[in-house]
Amino acid sequence: MIKKLIIFLLINFGALALGGFFTNAGVNGDWYVNLNKAPWTPPGWVFGTAWTAIMICFSIFMAYAWDEVANKNTLLTLFIIQLILNIGWNPVFFEYKWVLTGLIVISSLTLLLFYFFFNYRKTMKAKIFLLAPYMIWLCIATSLNAYVLINN
């Protein structure tokens, strides 16, 4: 269990670092600074704190799921799609400034996490709630992206 947890922590925090490469420059750039952002946009420090907690919970979930889910190929495929969408949103939104495409990417990621939740809830039992921080944050992030699309 500990070995799997370490592997998922390394992968997930590696993905965050890669996504952060695009985010850090974008957040401080003129384009993002001058956007009309949602009134509920959290202060910058909240993003780092939230993603740290989310990736710890998600890594714990994945380590348990790896032991408990019968079809590891499906689990791994969903995990990889999640990684691609999670990392991919950052350059799409911040580097290329494709706000609509960003909304499609983050909405897809949100739906995928809800799929994880409903697909694995019986197998994972109470451990399924380790996905709750990720799901809640994605709902907020999706609304922030949608606000930017509608109001800019």
- Main sheet properties: none
Q: What general form does the structure show? A: elongated
Helix-strand sequence: HHHHHH
Q: Tell me the CATH topology.
A: Ferritin
Query: What kind of oligomer do you see?
Result: single chain
Helix content: over 70%
Residue fraction in strands: under 5%
Distance between the termini: 47 Å
Spans of at least 5 consecutive residues with low confidence: none
Instruction: Note the total helix count.
Output: 6
Going by CATH, the homologous superfamily would be: TspO/MBR protein
Return the CATH architecture. Answer: Up-down Bundle
Average pLDDT figure: 95
Indicate the CATH class. Mainly Alpha
How many runs of DSSP E, i.e. beta strands?
Answer: 0
Structural class by sheet pairing and helices: mainly alpha
Q: Kindly provide the radius of gyration, computed on alpha-carbon positions and rounded to a whole number of angstroms.
A: 16 Å
Total number of domains: 1
Give structural notes.
The protein is mainly α. The protein has one domain: Ferritin (Up-down Bundle). Helix content is 83%, strand content 0%. The chain is built from six helices and no strands. The longest helix is centred in the N-terminal third of the chain and has 27 residues, at 2-28. The relative contact order is 0.16. The mean pLDDT is 95.
